[in-house]
């Protein structure tokens, strides 16, 4: 018995120390430097409804992802046709179709090549010399789903690098994304970071084209006009737009970027973004700079030209620079979106809500007051009804709350308004467990059992009931967390942690206190009402 008490005492003290270590950083805003170097500094994070922040509903324009993929297929078809000596007049995307017009019709060869090389395309119409192609239905469905899933992952990567703690980013329905950013200090900057498509392209400038006097209706098929936007350094307002004529062919895209960092130009004291390509991108960049020495290559982000430098010599090593009179924040955000990758399709903001911190403070205050009031009523009831045993139950109840907050900090869980409701429910369940045990003990005493026997039987017989009821509730909480969203998850988190803490305090901690008291003072009776 004494040996068992010693082991349980060590376990109990160990859990108390663990809880203390994790609760302190959440109670005090700052901890000593020695604490940070030796001990964890995890805090309980507050959700959007408690500390304020931004709530967004985004729509992924999946149609644009399909069109973009069709554009790439058009270029690939043209390349394959050249390699197989199939001569064509036009290969061009028209909305959700690809139009082929051939010089020398060869139906058997063309259709065989298309089916072998491009199995995701189907021929929707044909007259021998011209074809209309579109994606098969299953591939269109895949592209739509992929564009949403990839957008969620890309936005999550951007937000993580931006430094928002515990963001909530999830898909909803077929084409929508919910983004919740608790405690965001600069909503407009975050919105710009999230919404930027960040499609980086390198294209050759068409210097022999008269860009000042051109007819948009009669542009050559291989030519497009894009603009370099100049802004006032102080106000940030657009001062001018400089047109550039570019070849439509994309020489290199941002999909090959391995890293992007902000550096400072020592001559002009201006920030710029240095990008590093992966091995494949480095080889492509080496080739295009070698093939186009003396020409200008435009660096384009989301259809806006940032710079169009002249290639002085072949650039090996897979590095390039993006300049454009950035502020440090703009350069930093550009580096983030380039590292995180481009969105597969543009996103449109359908709903934007900013939750003020005052609402969160009011919710915390009311939740705290209601929880404290409910706890006081429970504590008084337990003392009134179960006497000294009620005090033991109250100690276990306070420990339960202490352990629960420690676990939330340890697992970096987010406390939300429904989470506070989960805490209140846990307190009620914890008391219920002790009531079951005490009523069993009373029943044993009424039968004439000795105090020691009554306590042993009371705990052992109530254990299965307590365990079954809590485990079934825990399973329900896990399901809520797995399949629920937002507020439901917040409720499930505190409920799950609270159930585990309740099992420990009501069965282990309470029993330890009873056993210690009888071992220490050799009690002949028990105050249990």
Please characterize this protein's 3D structure:
- It is built from 13 helices and 19 strands.
- With 529 residues, the chain is of the alpha+beta class.
- It has three domains: 2-52 and 356-521, Multidrug efflux transporter AcrB transmembrane fold, CATH 1.20.1640.10; 63-139, Eukaryotic phosphomannomutase, cap domain (Hypothetical Protein, Haloacid Dehalogenase-like Hydrolase, Chain: A, domain 2), CATH 3.30.1240.20; 196-354, 2-Layer Sandwich (Gyrase A, domain 2).
- Helix 1 (2-27) runs antiparallel to helix 13, helix 10 packs across helix 11 (417-446) and helix 11 (417-446) runs antiparallel to helix 12 (451-483).
- The protein is elongated, with a radius of gyration of 33 Å.
- The relative contact order is 0.12.
